[in-house]
Amino acid sequence: MCGIVGILAKRPVADLLVDGLRRLEYRGYDSAGIATLTDGKLGILRAEGKLNKLAEKLKRETLSGTIGIGHTRWATHGKPTESNAHPHATDLVAVVHNGIIENYKQLRRELELKNHAFKSETDTETIACLLSDYLQQGKTPQQAMAAALKRFDGAFAIGVVFAGHNDLLMGARRGSPMAIGYGDGEYYLGSDALALAPLTDRISYLEEGDWVEIHHDGVIIHDETDKVVKRKICQTALSGKTIDKGEYRHFMQKEIFEQPTVIADTFSNYVTSENTFTLPKLPFKWKDISRLTIVACGTASYAGMVAKYWFEQLARLPVEIDIASEFRYREPPLPANGATLVISQSGETADTLAAAVYAKKQKQYLLAVVNVPQSSMARLADVVFPTLAGPEIGVASTKAYTTQLVVLLCLAVEAGIARGNLTQQQAEKILQALREIPAHINEVLREEEKICELAKSFVDKNHALYLGRGALYPLALEGALKLKEISYIHAEGYPAGEMKHGPIALIDENMPIVVLSPHDRLFEKTASNIQEVSARGGKIILFSDKKGVAAIGAAAFWSMALPSVIMEVAPILYAIPVQLLAYYTAFAKGNDVDQPRNLAKSVTVE
Ligand code: AGP
To answer: Per DSSP, which regions of 245-318 are E strands?
Structure first.
């Protein structure tokens, strides 16, 4: 989950490296650094904290050189200090690294016995020292790289420059993505094509186990057996333009407000105005599928949980939903004629990617709902369903989540018709409700101020509970996650009916309980749970519709009536107040909303 850039050019690269890192800051932002070669000598600049710190340092201490590597870090081994920041270097090499070298302790012991001195607590430094060791034994950089790669366990991507070699930039990929960019007389390396978008739109991707040597006169790619191989160069449609916040304070706020547009875009990508599906063709028939397995992490997994309700109710299709980090090591048996659906904003989340690989090995049809169409997951899947959310920069996922829900509901409706469980008329009712969702979201967004006021009462809270039933239960989990990750308030999501089995013991006047409950077939059940909480002094914050708000009346400490919608689309609409509440609480606390502490946007390590 760190970001890597490398450039081999004929012009100074230091500023270009920092620009590239800026577009990768979503991958980590606790420290950053660059290394360049000037007349064959390594120069290194690193700074603790956000990338701006490095950029300021670069203004004071210039770094010349026409070849270099850069890194923005999300700490795994060792605190986010300058000494642990990448690049890690010896006199002979400088290395940037994303991922984890799992056997680094053993390698470090071995290298220390050979008198290699370590200056950091990182696993990355073992790469630099091992490469140096091989160079000292007389190996060429290429031989050193080939030999070193065979010694590392784990998933990683690396970029390397070698002292004395102004014409050589090297990279490798195992488990973590790495793109090569082809420019006009210059070449680039990047953790993803987005970093390279301002420099070139001609990209090739290293495949699993590949390593690459880049020279001024061309690129040589080797596979894991060191054989020279060709990898296709493709044109990316990624924009090189800097993505800015426009009139908004934060990317998260902008992304919340973009939802009516991106939801409409995503919907119309899959459904015509005559309610005909334009979903990509599947390699199977829905009625032949024995089970759908959904795997994802974090917010994407909550979208998957909502989809479980939809597929089961609308298509009577059995669904298993699992957290990718559990799924991949549990190695569950998967049924014959089963399909696995992975959901991911980035398409690069290490655990979800590993789960996808496992599912494919188990001969499952692999479907992917992703927001980055060139991502590793998209390239692995049999069928890709892109969400048209556009780049999501805020670490807290908002528009990716609701657009995932749009795609998933369309798929569930398509499956419902195909499996004979939904009539055309029933399907059209749901699609019509989906079509109207952007307008309803706009209505909720107009209530922003009210939620902003409510958020002020959360600022001094240490804990909060979120309750929901049915497909609103996953949203309770999502609401709690949103609040936790940006406001740092401890929050839990619960199925409302589960309160009496334990969590009700937590209730006191200091605990806000956010209830997500439209006036649907489950409303009366939740209303009883509200009474139980209220009778014990709990403060209910109710998001319902007019009917629901009226029914609960004074038992709620605070309430908001959302537009009335059919229950199938409620999980999409009710996501909006939940996001706004987290956003305004974090804002009122003065937190860094877009880059909350300890997190990174894309989690490409386990
Ligand atoms: C959500 O707000 C998160 N920051 C996080 O849970 C995220 O959803 C998760 O890491 C999965 O990411 P992905 O969608 O890119 O796979």
So the answer is: 291-296
Output the residue whose Cα is nearest ligand 1's atom 4: 396
Average pLDDT over residues 455-465: 96
218 sits in the region (left: phi over 0; alpha: psi -120 to 50; else beta) called left
Catalytic residue selected from 2, 129, 297, 410: 2
CA 251, CA 257: separation in Å to the nearest integer? 10
**Residue 297 a catalytic site member:** no
**Ligand 1 center to 23 CA (angstroms):** 18
Q: Report the atom number in ligand 1 closest to the C-alpha of 481.
A: 2
| Residue 237 exposed, middle or buried by CB count within 10 Å (0-12, 13-18, 19+) | exposed
Phi and psi at 410, nearest 5°, equal -60, -45
CB 202 within 8 A of CB 225: no
Residue of 29, 255, 256, 297 with the most ligand 1 atoms within 8 Å of its CB, for mutation: 297
pLDDT digits (tens, 9 = 90+) for 122-135: 999 999 999 999 99
Contact (Cβ atoms closer than 8 angstroms) between residue 52 and residue 41: no
> How does DSSP assign 242-270, residue by residue?
PP--TTSSSHHHHHHHTHHHHHHHHHHHH
Q: What percent of the chain has pLDDT over 70?
A: 99
Look up 234 and say whether it is catalytic. Answer: no
Q: What's 447-592's CATH class?
A: alpha beta
Instruction: Enumerate the domain spans of the chain.
Output: 3-235, 245-445, 447-592
Distance CA 411, CA 279 (A): 8
- CB-side exposure of 486: number of CA atoms within 13 Å? 31
CA distance 144 to 141: 5
Q: Are strands 490-495 and 463-468 parallel, antiparallel or unpaired?
A: parallel
Any idea which residue has 């409700």 for tokens? 433
Q: How far apart are alpha carbons 196 and 187 in whole angstroms?
A: 10
Q: Considering Cα of 163, then 169, then 170, then 171, what sign does the dihedral take?
A: positive
What's the CATH number of domain 245-445, 3.40.630.30, 1.10.287.110, 3.40.50.10490, 3.40.190.10?
A: 3.40.50.10490
275 Ramachandran zone, left/alpha/beta (phi>0; psi -120 to 50): left
Query: Dihedral of CA 416/419/425/431: which sign?
Result: positive
CA–CA distance, 350 with 56 (Å, rounded to integer): 32
482: tokens are: 């949103």
Listed in sequence order, the residues at least 6 apart from 289 whose beta carbon sits closer than 8 Å to its beta carbon are 317, 337, 338, 339, 365
Strands 463-468, 67-73: pairing is: unpaired
Q: Kindly give the distance from the C-alpha atom of residue 142 to the centroid of ligand 1, in angstroms, as a whole number.
A: 37
Hey, do 3-235 and 245-445 end up sharing a CATH topology, with the first three levels equal?
A: no
Nearest CA among 463, 517, 518 for reference residue 492: 463
Model confidence pLDDT, tens digit, residues 341-375: 999 998 989 899 999 999 999 999 999 999 988 78
Residue 356 belongs to what H/E stretch? Answer: helix 350-361
Write out pLDDT tens, residues 172-201.
999 788 999 999 999 999 988 888 988 999
Distance CA 200, CA 206 (A): 17
> Residue 513: beta bridge partners?
465, 540
**What CA–CA distance (Å, rounded) separates 194 from 530?**
47
Distances (CA, A) of 259 to 254, 340, 481, 518: 9, 27, 19, 21
CATH code, 3-235: 3.60.20.10
In sequence order, what are the beta bridge partners of 369?
A: 343, 385
